[in-house]
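FAQ: What does a multi-protein file look like?

Like this. Sequence, then tokens, then the next protein.
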Amino acid sequence: MSLIQQTSPFWSANFLIYWYDLPVTLEYPLRAACRTRSAHCRDERSGSSSEHKEDSVLLSVIMPCYNEEQTIRTIIDQVRAVRLEKEIIVVDDHSQDRTPEILRELAADDPLLRVIRHPVNRGKGDTIRTGLTHARGEIVIIQDSDLEYDPSDYYELVRPIIAGRVDVVFGARFLGRHTGMYFWNAVGNKFLTMMTNFLYNCWISDMETCYKVMRTDIMRSLHLESNDFRIEPEMTAKVLRLGYRIYQVPISYMGRKYEEGKKIKKIDGLKAILTLLRFRNWHGTVPRFNPIDPATASVALQAVREHSQYNGFTPFVSNSPN
């Protein structure tokens, strides 16, 4: 179990405090914290440590959540069922329902499930940054904690990266099977994607997709700033500004209603426009990273092939000619 809480500094006999320049991270109980201290004592700004490569896994799944008591157990079970080497990092953005209680129960007997709780509600972007500081995976994927996105799509999303073809993959809802999206939400998504293509000279079909998959070092190099849903256009803009070509993989999408807890609002569309304009001239540094270990890649590709054969289809993969 790894249960982590971000809060203000204090000392207690039941907690072990690791002090950084950024907000304090607390892990408990004390015995578990001492046993795993080397894995967690890393610079929160870079997520690096001397043991980072030694204890790395293939895939880090960062899952922001806020008041998702109805879906959190199901989505975690679905992610667990994916037969890829992975860790699951759930960042609870100070939920006020039974979500924290459910997460404590789920993490109790699962060493690959790590739960981090914010002391106040900060927004999706901040939860992603928090999860990224603790990610050990060679590849990172963002997973919403509702049931709109299907984790069984992971196999085809990571395949091009594991095979060494590309370093960034987006799951494209409009190329795959989808339902439940509101008309004006769909129009807004299309407009924002068209604006992205125009401003950044690329050709993608779903800028706002949750499934943004890339090498972890790339996501860290973006130095993400947004606290809310602006994280989606910011991430897309910066990846394109670094010169990466985005592969698109069709995914399934089952949109939920606002009555069911959908959180994005119309104002977020305007914020996304301003974000795309803001980062139009952003400059960053392309990170250096090693290829994925051949043995690890071989095992993962075998799981991908078996999944494809079992489901009886060969995926279409689209390359963004930016």
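And here is the next protein:
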Amino acid sequence: MRKPTSRACHALLACALAATALSAAAQDDLRTAVLLSHTQTVEPNVTYLTASGQALKLDLYRPVAPGGQPLPVVLHFHGGGWVAGSREGTVLDVLPWLRMGFAVLNVEYRLARTALAPAAVEDTLCALQWVGLNAKRYNLDLARVVTTGGSAGGHLALATAMLPPDSPFASQCAANEPAWSGPYVNPAPKVAAVVNWFGITDVADMLEGPNIRSYAVAWFGSMAGRAALARSLSPLTYVRPGGPPVFTIHGDADPMVPYAHAMRLKIALDKAGVRNALHTIKGGDHGGFSLDQQVAAFEAARDFLRGLGIVPAPGAPQASR
């Protein structure tokens, strides 16, 4: 039998080490999964609003025994062009946020088949008010509220954070006030930051012209004055000094939401002096990024939030669990 050459031995050793590393990584992944299931709890199907005859639900994910320091909280809105999608379909998207130490609200909202624009925005504003009303009960930190979502969910994350508290789109939430017959005070906290995954920033741009998209047309239907309403629902309309910081992730080859939407938002935020960053996925489509691209995007978002003091730096004290 021919003795293995030095090169062959090195190759075999490299393969063995790689297999060992993969096995160790698999064990680490298993431990992480078990840790999440062991330390986190889910309060599903919490009704935060009833509108158009529909009880709108959210699922709350948080540590099993939260106590001590209040928890930062993320409101997550699913995508689907305001006409499709569900919170159940994006449940795994909450996992990175749980690992970062957040409580997470996975929120559903009315789609176009139930109610046309501006219903989805009205609903997510009410979800934000729900946080304000229930922060003490669930030990949520109202100074560290983040909104996030992809595509239409990115739009809703931006709109929910950027619309002013006196916006008429928040008025439907008044019926949920415990003392609904008395004076109405908007209990929504100020959003501390937005993590926007390839969201629509100029809704009117999607209704006509070269960037027209069928999902946007369907959200408005044939209503009169839809162009003016679309402008009033566009995050770009509400860029102003003092607005919430925004971290945007967008592929520069996105065929559904033009990359220009991310660029225009960044330019406007820079001009207004609002802290922001654009993380471009080179050659990236409308989501569907590679594992490495997705991890890099989340790491960059985490660093951005750390810079704002929303996510603790490594080694800093965490909320007790």
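Q: Is there any per-entry metadata?
A: Some entries carry free-text notes. For the entry above: The chain has one domain: 36-307.
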